[in-house]
């Protein structure tokens, strides 16, 4: 067997890693600091919280200083690991490296996860701040700016749901397949609204990425599409036994599209249960935590934010709440999703950080739908695979896990597999012709997407 390629590096000027470490991270962390400062300034009477807030600001300033000095990545201390045991996974991974990494020189995926965990532990060390989500305001503000796409999808869902009720469970396979494709598409492009990329996005920017028209324009940009295989798998399990799992990505608009997909599946009686897998902490700016579900309901109910199409919005909220209450729709979380490991460790071997538990749980799943860019990087270990590598090869051990994986991802990083011969060269040329210096960066522009499936055996 030939050796697997190495992982993308922060020092590689042809990789999106390069600009991420040098521009994107400082912007994100500075924004995070501003958020904490504003929160502190809005407090009155809780002196302890304010005092502790100042310690957090010092911690964040220190990260920014370390960025500037290209400081080394230190291991998490025993005290930090005692407070949050899954931090140990980072030390384990750091130990496998030949050279001590720095903020500008080291493996992209590992150091990026490390950054969000460092920020998290700086906050969690302060007793008054353990429940604080540093990205919550950003997540909710972006959702508020998504009214156009929200209305459109709520209207679509209500019309469909009423049609399905009239059919009384007699949806033929042909129609079911078309609708399945439609909701895969909605959920896929829901991933294009990404706060870590749209830090300075205007309302128009956000709108231009959402809705039916935007999706129609983008359909030719799906460069690997295994949907037919995934549908075959779906049909191979009797409807009354089907369970779908979503390994979630972003809160806000993307989460809303994942919920719309879920509602369609449950209303059409195409599945029995759906479980959403969330993060246990703030992560990569926009990722979904369990508590974000409650905020989502609150925000959908906000008549000042969303004054129009109330009937459709209320219908959406009532429908999902009903399934949440009767247990057909569940929310779960695990430390595994934010530990240092890529998903080759989603296996019985990881009995420490949740990998083994998830592995077991996914054995009974009809499809595990893995959303978004970061999750895709973890699936493929963020390695420099030739782009014609098959998805299964890039999954390594996960390709033999008996887990049926369907990745829905808009490409926002360098790694991408499953492409036909010659396409990559074409895309590089095309990207250069559009005036971009590094042709390879087509792959992190968010304009292309993949729908990749592995049967797990
Ligand atoms: O996973 P998501 O929300 O689709 O995208 C997250 C993202 O914007 O931030 C990550 C870290 O830089 C990148 O993998 C990706 O570009
Ligand atoms: Mg994300
Ligand atoms: Mn394929």
Spans of at least 5 consecutive residues with low confidence: 195-200
SSE class: alpha/beta
Q: What CATH architecture label of the largest domain applies?
A: 3-Layer(aba) Sandwich
What is the helix tally? 18
Mean pLDDT: 94
**What is the fourth-level CATH superfamily of the largest domain?**
Uncharacterised protein PF01937, DUF89, domain 3
Q: Ligands in the structure?
A: 1-O-phosphono-beta-D-fructofuranose, magnesium ion, manganese (II) ion
Spatial separation of the terminal alpha carbons? 18 Å
What does the largest sheet look like? 7 strands, mixed
Portion in beta strands: 5-15%
Question: Descriptors for this entry?
Answer:
globular; 457 residues; Transcription Elongation Factor S-II, Chain A; transferase; hydrolase; 7-stranded mixed sheet; alpha/beta; binds 1-O-phosphono-beta-D-fructofuranose; Rossmann fold
Question: How would you describe this protein?
Answer:
By secondary structure, the protein is an alpha/beta fold. Helix 8 packs antiparallel against helix 12. It is 49% helix and 8% strand. The chain has two domains: 119 residues, Transcription Elongation Factor S-II, Chain A (Up-down Bundle), CATH 1.20.930; 314 residues, 3-Layer(aba) Sandwich (Rossmann fold), CATH 3.40.50. The protein is globular and about 65 Å long. The protein starts with 15 loop residues before the first helix and ends with a strand. The protein is built from 18 helices and seven strands. Strand 2, helix 12 and strand 3 form a beta-alpha-beta unit. About 1% of the residues have low confidence. A seven-stranded mixed β-sheet has the order 1-7-6-5-2-3-4, sandwiched between helices. The structure holds 1-O-phosphono-beta-D-fructofuranose, magnesium ion and manganese (II) ion. The site of manganese (II) ion has 5 residues, from loops.
């Amino acid at each position: 067997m030939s050796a697997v390629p190495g992982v993308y590096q922060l020092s590689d000027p042809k990789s999106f890693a390069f600009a991420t470490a040098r521009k994107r991270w400082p912007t994100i962390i500075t924004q995070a600091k501003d958020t904490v400062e504003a929160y502190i300034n809005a407090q009155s009477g809780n002196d302890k919280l304010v005092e502790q807030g100042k310690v957090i600001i010092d911690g964040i300033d220190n990260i920014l200083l370390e960025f500037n000095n290209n400081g080394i990545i230190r291991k998490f201390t025993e005290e930090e690991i005692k407070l949050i045991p899954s931090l140990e996974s980072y030390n384990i991974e750091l130990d496998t490296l030949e050279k001590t990494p720095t903020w500008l020189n080291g493996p992209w995926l590992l150091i990026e996860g490390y950054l969000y965990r460092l920020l998290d532990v700086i906050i969690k060390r302060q007793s008054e701040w353990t429940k604080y989500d540093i990205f919550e305001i950003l997540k909710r503000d972006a959702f508020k700016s998504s009214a156009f796409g929200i209305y459109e999808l709520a209207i679509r869902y209500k019309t469909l749901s009423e049609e399905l009720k009239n059919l009384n469970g007699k949806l033929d396979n042909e129609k079911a397949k078309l609708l399945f494709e439609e909701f895969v598409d909605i959920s896929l492009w829901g991933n294009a609204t990404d706060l870590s990329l749209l830090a300075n996005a205007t309302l128009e920017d956000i709108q231009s990425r959402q809705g039916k028209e935007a999706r129609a324009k983008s359909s030719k940009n799906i460069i690997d599409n295994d949907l037919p295989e995934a549908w075959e798998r779906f049909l191979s399990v009797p409807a009354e036994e089907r369970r779908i799992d979503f390994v979630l990505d972003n809160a806000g608009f993307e989460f809303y599209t994942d919920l719309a997909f879920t509602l369609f599946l449950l209303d059409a009686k195409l599945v029995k249960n759906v479980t959403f897998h969330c993060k246990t902490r703030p992560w990569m700016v926009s990722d979904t935590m369990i508590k974000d579900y409650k905020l989502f309901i609150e925000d959908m109910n906000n008549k000042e934010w969303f004054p129009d199409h109330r009937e459709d919005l209320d219908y959406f909220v009532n429908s999902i709440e009903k399934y949440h209450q009767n247990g057909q729709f569940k929310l779960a979380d695990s430390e595994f999703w934010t530990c240092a490991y890529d998903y080759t460790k989603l296996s019985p071997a990881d009995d420490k950080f949740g990998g083994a538990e998830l592995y077991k749980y996914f054995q009974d799943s009809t499809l595990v739908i893995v959303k978004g860019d970061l999750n895709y990087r973890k699936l493929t270990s963020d390695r420099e695979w030739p782009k014609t590598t098959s998805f299964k090869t890039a999954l390594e051990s996960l390709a033999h896990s008996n887990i049926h994986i369907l990745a829905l991802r808009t490409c926002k990083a360098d790694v991408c597999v499953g492409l036909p011969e010659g396409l990559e060269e074409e895309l590089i040329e095309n990207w250069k012709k559009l005036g971009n210096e590094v042709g390879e960066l087509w792959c992190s522009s968010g304009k292309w997407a993949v729908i990749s499936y592995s049967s797990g055996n």
